[in-house]
Amino acid sequence: MTNPSPLDDPDYAQFAWTRYWRLMRWMTAFTLLVTAAVLVSFWMKYGWVSVHFYIATAGAIVASIMLTAALMGLVFLSSGTGHDESIDDPFKDEADR
Predict the structure, then answer these.
(1) Domain presence at residue 96
(2) What's the maximum distance between 2 C-alpha atoms anywhere in the chain?
(3) Would you state the pLDDT for residue 10?
(4) How confident is the model at residue 86, as a pLDDT?
(5) Residue 59 domain boundaries
(6) Model pTM?
(7) Residue 97 falls within a domain, yes or no?
(8) 89 found inside a domain
């Protein structure tokens, strides 16, 4: 039988997800700031290269930082709420040997 997850409690789940989305808002602001700084530095060093270069660079920066933030945020959410400990590990007895 599986143990109940702390995220099954609606109040606790709302608190945890609110904290996750607050982290994502901060990371969005940070991502936009970093993207703007990188694009300005490219423009100052190389001048106008191509609109496609700047679009691709901005897209790559935003996608990589936001994907990393989303996945790490979910790891922190799962671990910090005790959701990871609520699973039933069928191999626990084998690991103790």
Answers:
(1) no
(2) 64
(3) 78
(4) 65
(5) 21-82
(6) 0.75
(7) no
(8) no
Give the separation between CA 15 and CA 46, rounded to whole angstroms: 46
Sign, CA dihedral 57-63-65-68, equals negative
Asked if 23 and 73 count as a contact pair (C-beta separation under 8 A), the reply is yes
Tokens 């969005």 belong to 28
pLDDT digits (tens, 9 = 90+) for 50-87: 999 999 999 999 999 999 999 998 888 877 676 666 66
Element housing 28 (H / E): helix 10-46
Residue type, 95: A
Q: Which two tokens stand for residue 8?
A: 């099954």
Contact 16, 77 (CB under 8 A): yes
How far, in Å, CA of 84 to CA of 88, rounded? 10
d(CA 29, CA 31): 5
Token pair listed for 40: 């300005």
pLDDT at position 95: 56
Q: How many domains does the chain contain in total?
A: 1
With respect to residue 65, please indicate whether it lies within any of the assigned structural domains. Answer: yes
